[in-house]
Sequence to fold (427 residues):
Amino acid sequence: MITEMDINRCATHSLNDARILRILSAALSAVDPYRTVKNHLPKMDGNIYGLAIGKAAVPMMTALAESIQLSGALAISKHASSASTPLSADFSLIPLLLSGHPIPDARSVHAGERAIEFVSSLKEDDTLVCLISGGGSALMTAPLISLDELQTLTSSLLASGATINEINTIRRHLDRVKGGWLARATKAKIISLILSDVIGNPFEAIASGPTAPDPTTIEDARLIFEKFSSSQPTILQFSNSLVETLKPNDPIFSRVQNIIIGDNKLAAVAAMEQVQREGFNSEILTNELQGEAREVGVMLATKLRDEISKRPRPFCLIAGGETTVTIRGDGKGGRNQELALAAVNELRDLPNVMLIALATDGEDGPTDAAGAVATGESARRANRLGLSEADSLSRNDSYPFFESLGDLIRTHPTGTNVNDLIFLFAM
Fold:
């Protein structure tokens, strides 16, 4: 959890207003995994086991282990600790497997096998508490194709601009732990506490639904293959390996409870409440923002420009969701940085405005930045440094652009993961 004592970790050259830093802090604090698990633990008795999967596995498991005497546990994550929750003394006794994300690696396959082995050992009168968060699809896998093939497929889909729902639909039909198969592997009762990183909170899409029924079919997965085959023709070879997943009418799910404990809306509402405490007018535009990052960046910057003449200052508009990037160049960046870069020219020379695009997990694409800040001065500052926003955008090279301006947001891994937040400020 980012507290007021360390809100300056979100600060950049342009983002240094303590009011705005407190707003970002409030958003991330509201979806702190440790706190959300503590707030949603049901009453349980008998032998209780814990399985944590995803980027928030460490703080989620820490909360569970501190609250309940566990008979056994396993955690699978990307990081051994987060900016908010280092490993506690109790947690050090729990096996922690670190594996690859966003591209699964050999450790991800090992984690999948360990998870199957772990849950398969449980009995009917045991209770398995699954703590699920974003990133679990890559961090834990038992693929029906080779690891090399899975890595090629995942990289191709990510580069094509496929949404997380589309990617996870394919993943579910190529795996032995996704699409409800983990639930089938155990006799225990299951309670899944889920921190959602998917728009609309569909259980089957979050970490590819290891304990959830899957309403999609092999045919749905094949249609996604066909959709992206023109730009990534090699992916069609994997369509012959698809298998069906467990469906909502499967009796296995009579012993499974899937519960959402935190999502993008929770973070956005907390931000809006803090915005109002800081004296800004505020509105949440959407929690279902999708589309090509560069197009969304232009759209949101245009929205900010238009609202200046309609709303009294100061105001803040909040949007949440997750965009995609179709890779055209060989640059470095992430979807939030690209979104902010696309907004730079639209905001050119507007006084006292700011667009902040932030990945709530602190990791925007394959970079060490959570996102970036664009202001009305960004274009001129960049031009003085010999940088062109249009050139950088054409090469998907947003990271060096904002690094030169000092406007990369570097929170480090936050320990949570509920999609992205975009803030439009006029002061």
Remarks:
- The longest helix spans residues 106-120.
- The first strand starts at residue 48 and ends at 53.
- The CA atoms of residues 146 and 152 lie 10 Å apart.
